[in-house]
Design a protein that fits this description.
- The complex is a heterodimer of chains A (about 300) and B (about 250).
- Chain A is α/β, with parallel strands linked by helices and about 300 residues long.
- Chain A folds into 2 domains: about 170 residues, 3-Layer(aba) Sandwich (D-Maltodextrin-Binding Protein, domain 2), CATH 3.40.190.10; about 90 residues, 3-Layer(aba) Sandwich (D-Maltodextrin-Binding Protein, domain 2).
- Chain A is about 45% helix and about 20% strand.
- In chain A, helix 2 crosses helix 12 and helix 6 packs across helix 13.
- The longest helix of chain A has 22 residues.
- The chains are: A alpha/beta (about 300), B mainly alpha (about 250).
- Chains A and B meet through helix 4, helix 5, strand 7 and helix 7 of A and helix 9 of B.
């Protein structure tokens, strides 16, 4: 009897050893993002199995409008969502509990992919020429819009004398061409479509004039979810680190993965950055205060997970 | 002393009960207060905006968009409705086309309107007029087409010309239906004024609500909705008052 018991126990232990990795709990994580090359490490992590390797069953969900991601996080439709620093700060200012858990990309002067484009027959030689013009931005109070307003203020142009209109990115080329808009503050790949289509020209590389290097996109989650899922956060970071390493060592394959997940290839990759730091928030906190966007104060250290 | 109508008291009580339920649900936090603020918070925001005067510019802008679009829709609707309603041939020729265009959602025409008219007040006016014309037009067609045969005979006997017939007999006869159409049209005008303000970043309550949603200030959003509700209520009551006076001959006891 004792011998049978030993055999049973040994057999059970063997099964455990063979099944080892499968016993580790796999977390299903829905990740929300707008279609952009910034998140290529995530697409790669999904495509190449890095999420699975780190015990995450990742479900990628496209959410075209960035400001819809905070409500999606609060409602539980997604667990991790893309954000920009202004959207994070406005959401926190509105009383929502979010933290940055990772970075996605930096916008740098040497690798600029956001520009102010003017229609061909609109003469823009200096910032003051924007007075009375209609400028399309992809989102009111988006990072593109906030930096545009700061740029106007830096150049002593009254923001209320420029008409800033929220316009979906895909419609910008047509609205610029038809004359509905005079200028657009636009991001790749739509920027190249306007330039290559001879619809407009670069009026100003305004973003780099405001800040030559900043965190343009990042990943966030609710404070409550982060508190209850610290291991999943670590696994997510490890997976996207693997994804980024793959992108850097396999650019051609990464382009194919980009095409597979986005349906297009950007002219060039942004400066990927998987780390988010409290100092990444400071510039936008200051700009937001200057623009009167916030009613509360922020402690950047509490908004970025170490 | 005039007795207060108990039905009116009950109506006010019902509305207050709904507000109380709203407050209770918000206090219970069944939905995050970020997205479902208590009415007390929305009213506090409204009070602040009234106090600093920032709400009045938005109200004025939305009222202007609404009224101009409604007036244009009313004039076109009554004129075209009169032409169609008083002519069998016009009705047979135009009704199929109108039935095709009528169901088009006015909001869906905004991209087309933007291409032709830009992101402008003219675009807003065109979209509002397009959406609001149909209740007035259909009511006018029916009203002008339903003139009593005896009244037509009377017009013939009196030797009234077509224009005189329309103004002196057909229009008064069609007025009850036209005013009913105007009431519906006014509500549509307010809705479309708000939608076009959101879409084209035009100043007004629509823009205020859109912006509040963008920056997650739900109390501000609900404050805007409260003002819109009050505007819609007041506009409707004004039309009802005008109706009572214009159509007093239908009920001399009023």
């Amino acid at each position: 009897m004792a011998g049978i018991r030993k055999v049973l126990i040994l057999g059970w232990l063997s099964t455990l050893c063979l099944a080892g990795p499968a016993i580790c709990e796999t977390a299903q994580v829905t990740i929300g993002y707008p279609p952009a090359t910034d998140f290529l490490p995530v697409y790669v992590a999904k495509d190449q199995g890095f999420f699975s390797k780190h015990n995450i069953e990742a479900v990628l969900t496209g959410i075209p409008v960035v400001t819809n991601i905070p409500p999606a996080l609060i409602s539980g439709s997604v667990e991790i969502g893309m954000t920009t620093v202004p959207v994070l700060l406005q959401a926190v200012d509105g009383g929502l509990d979010f933290v940055l858990i990772a970075g996605a990309a930096h916008h740098t002067r040497s690798n600029a992919f956001i520009s102010l484009l003017a229609r061909k027959n609109v003469k823009i030689e200096k910032p003051a020429d924007l007075v009375g013009k209609k400028v399309g931005v992809p989102g009111i109070n988006s990072v593109i819009d906030v930096l545009l307003r700061k740029w106007l203020i830096m150049n002593k142009v009254a923001v209320n004398q420029v008409t800033i209109i929220e316009t979906p990115l895909p419609q910008m080329p047509d609205l610029l061409k038809s004359g509905t808009l005079d200028l657009v503050a636009i991001v790749e790949p739509f920027r190249s479509r306007i330039l290559d289509g001879d619809i407009g020209y670069v009026a100003a590389e305004y973003v780099s004039q405001v800040d030559p290097d900043f965190l343009v996109s990042a990943w966030m989650a609710t404070g409550d979810w982060v508190k209850h899922n610290p291991d999943v956060v670590s696994d997510f970071r490890a997976a996207i680190d693997d994804g980024l390493a793959y992108v850097r060592s396999n650019p051609d394959q990464s382009r194919e993965i980009e095409k597979k997940y986005l349906g297009f290839n950007s002219p060039h990759f942004p400066d990927f950055e998987n780390k988010a730091r409290p100092e990444d928030l400071k510039a936008f906190v200051d700009i937001g205060r200057e623009l009167g966007l916030y009613r509360t104060s922020f402690d950047p250290a509490k908004l970025v997970l170490p | 002393m005039r007795m207060i109508d108990p039905v009116r008291i009950a109506a006010v009580g019902f509305a207050l009960a709904l507000v109380a339920i709203w407050q209770l649900l918000a206090e219970l936090r069944l939905v995050s207060p970020i997205f479902f603020p208590a009415p007390s918070r929305a009213i506090a925001v409204l009070a602040a905006r009234l106090s600093d005067g920032t709400i009045f510019g938005s109200i004025a802008a939305t009222l202007l968009h609404m009224l101009l679009g409604w007036l244009l829709a009313s004039l076109v609707g009554i004129a075209v409705g009169a032409a169609i309603g008083s002519s069998r041939l016009a009705r047979d020729l135009l009704e199929p086309t109108l039935d095709f265009i009528r169901p088009l959602p006015a909001s869906a025409t905004i991209p087309v309107a933007v291409l032709f008219l830009g992101l402008s007040n003219q675009m807003s006016l065109a979209v509002i007029a397009f959406g609001a014309v149909w209740p007035v037009l259909l009511a006018s067609v029916h009203g002008f087409g339903s003139v009593e045969p005896e009244q037509r005979q009377l017009a013939e006997i009196l030797g009234l010309g077509r224009r005189e017939f329309l103004v002196k007999i057909a229009l008064p006869s069609a007025l009850p239906e036209i005013i009913a159409g105007l009431r519906v049209s006014l509500a549509i005008s307010l809705i479309l004024a708000v939608v076009t303000e959101m879409q084209a970043s035009l100043p007004g309550l629509g823009w205020d609500i859109f912006y509040a949603q963008r920056v997650y200030r739900s109390a501000d959003l609900y404050a805007g909705l409260i003002v819109l509700g009050i505007m819609g209520f007041a506009a409707n009551r004004l039309v009802v008052w005008c109706e009572a006076r214009l159509l007093h001959w239908r009920n001399p006891n009023i």
